[in-house]
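Cross-posting from the modeling subforum.

Setting up a comparison between two proteins and wanted a second pair of eyes on the formatting. Protein 1 (sequence, then structure tokens):
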Amino acid sequence: MRLLFVLKMMAMAAAPVVPLVAADTSRERIEAGVRAQKAGDLKTASAAYREVLEKDPLLTRVRHLLGVSELQAGNIGEGIRQLEIVRRENPSNRQAIYTLLSTYIATGMAAPAGKIMESNLRGDLSAAGRFMRGSYAMAQGEYDVSIRELRQARKLDARLPGVSSQLGIAYCFANRLEEALPVLESALRENPSDGNAAAFLGWLYKDRDRNPEAAALLEQTVRARPEDHGALFLLAQLTQSRGDSVKAVALLEQIIAREPGHRAAHVLLARWYQQLDRANDAARERAVVERLNLELQASQPKVD
């Protein structure tokens, strides 16, 4: 399964404390922004924070709020820009640094993530610091390092949000599946809404033919993250195995509508359309698979 639907919003849940140095009118605007942000009205929240920052650009905690609001709105570049200003002007703001690093890791930006690791987190032996190091190592494919750091983070603070599911996922990528299983089950008990734990645990259950449990978890994941094509693909396979071909086909059709180059989904669709006597649809999908295969072959380097 694809790495890093893991960290995307990891450090964004908790907002920084409203700065006490703000004047009364600014404080009112900040509080209005926080209320809007909590309600999901991110446009209003960002506008309130920008209004305050126009009067006092040095309120880095407000800039932190603005950066988080922009990230939550999907404006990754602007969110990063604001948080980089916070990191530069207030390097002691660990929360902003963790959020920024999480964003770099989640979006595959290894170089700036490595820079933060080196310049800001070198001596950070806190649970959160080790969580960040473990997550960065996992993104780099250094799974043994990742497991070591995440185990230490969990030992220091078992209640750190996401630490158990992240450790379980690291075990999965290291192919240490027997160790992953109890950790992910524990993560889901601690936080039933943990989509990362649910998705990977569903994958493990499917691998062990625990199909009803796998389906329940994958359905939970897809409801929470409809864009998670890995979970949707597994759910389609489970649905087909239970004899509901029509629903399984509909799930695969969702995938290719969002990701037309998803070859595995096209392969299965061709087969399942044929089973449903939808010959024209099956032929179309086989043609798509053939085209994708040719494109893949053309992209491979030629060997003399």
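Protein 2 (same layout):
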Amino acid sequence: MLAKLTKIIIVIACFIIGGIISILLFKNFSTKENNIVDTRIINHEIQRLNKMIVIEQNYSAFRTKKYNDYNPKYLNFLNKNIVLYITAKAQVTYDMKKMKINVDSVNKKINIIFLPEPELNVYPDVEIYSMEEGLFNNFSKADLNSVMTEGKKDIQKEVENSNIKLLAHNQLISNLKDLYSIARLYNWKINDETPYAKELEPIKN
């Protein structure tokens, strides 16, 4: 009788131990599966971030250059002036292929090590809209080259003082916010070593 009871206890104990082992194995397998899925989603979001950011704007302006070499009150007919029509296409780009991001899938951590600086490119075009030459006071080739160079510098300054860099910056931050949000959703941590970390701190927390 005692031997039979002992066998029953051993069988029950084996069932219990087997059940516990099965639960632990399933839990471990499930955790690994979830971690693999999470890592794929994170990597997909990083691939989206890897695309180049390009912001473009077109600019145009008229510029008048007056050469008042003589008193305009009495000898204005000797003076000359020129009106330029200046256009420019401007681009601000972030070459995101240069970014450095390390994904630690074991510890569920994203290390943002480096993000590229924005690059501004301006492609100006200068045309003579109108030109008035004074009596015995014509425009030389040097005059025209000089005034066109000034026109290009003027449009360059206008572009630099515009909001195009801010628009590109905001687009970068928006893209980073998407990564931060996904990381937070799946309980991943982000270690951001770039200058943009402060702007994204509220999302991180």
